[in-house]
Amino acid sequence: MPLIFKEKFQGDCLFGIWEIKETYEDLLSEVHLFPGERERLLGFRSGARKIEFLSVRILLKALIGICGPIVYSDNNKPYLHQSEYRISISHSRTLTSIMLSKTKKVGIDLEYMSHKISKIQHKFINDDEYITPDPLKQKYHLYIHWCAKEALYKVCDKQDINFKKNLTIESFEPQDVGIIYGWVDNKFWHDKFELDYFTINKFVVVYCCKKS
């Protein structure tokens, strides 16, 4: 079973990562789809998107058992229907991740480190943020920033957030595993958040769990 990471922390925050090795048919045979979910699955044109959709549900099953369908708000924020759990979801290439909590707001992001991120850094790095001048670490540093901002965006319900204007990551030197701090400043939030990060193979993972 490709559940490659599972951890419980801060009381009831539960975090898991699934490595997708199954075929579409294998996943479909193992997943219970609630009314409406099968239609949504079949509506995807991409085979990769269908596999992502099923991998989220098989990971959810591995973490807490079947717990209601996943539904989405108008801004595409996921919820577990008729459940106390709050949920955050991320997937990139062969990995899918989920974070859950009944008492805290959660945000998770994972990204495969390709060579493209430097081309878009001007869109999400602001003048108050520090990126190492070390060329061997710059790509990794940028990915931590990007994933951290994605996690904050999810924690804050994806409301009125511009990655460059409303999110700032405090200066840090990238390590294999670490804790960083980020600020959200908009009409809904002016608050500081603690985020954890680590790498797994060529993926960066950043997550946040905060009392609401």
Description:
It is a single chain. With 212 residues, the protein is α+β, with helices and mostly antiparallel strands. The protein has two domains: 3-102, 4'-phosphopantetheinyl transferase domain (Ribosomal Protein L22, Chain A); 109-211, Ribosomal Protein L22, Chain A (Alpha-Beta Complex). The protein contains four helices and eleven strands. The chain has helices at 24-30, 37-43, 47-64, 138-155; strands spanning 3-9, 13-19, 70-72, 78-80, 86-92, 95-101, 104-112, 167-169, 177-185, 190-200, 203-211. A five-stranded antiparallel beta sheet has the order 7-11-10-9-8, covered by helices on one side. A four-stranded antiparallel beta sheet has the order 1-2-6-5. A two-stranded antiparallel ribbon has the order 3-4. The two termini are 34 Å apart. The model has no long low-confidence stretch (mean pLDDT 94).
What is this structure, in a nutshell?
The protein has 212 residues and is of the alpha+beta class. The chain is built from four helices and eleven strands; from the N terminus they run E-E-H-H-H-E-E-E-E-E-H-E-E-E-E.
How would the blueprint of this fold be written?
Blueprint: E1 3-9, E2 13-19, H1 24-30, H2 37-43, H3 47-64, E3 70-72, E4 78-80, E5 86-92, E6 95-101, E7 104-112, H4 138-155, E8 167-169, E9 177-185, E10 190-200, E11 203-211
Antiparallel strand pairs: 1-2, 2-6, 3-4, 5-6, 7-11, 8-9, 9-10, 10-11
Helix pairs in contact: 1-3
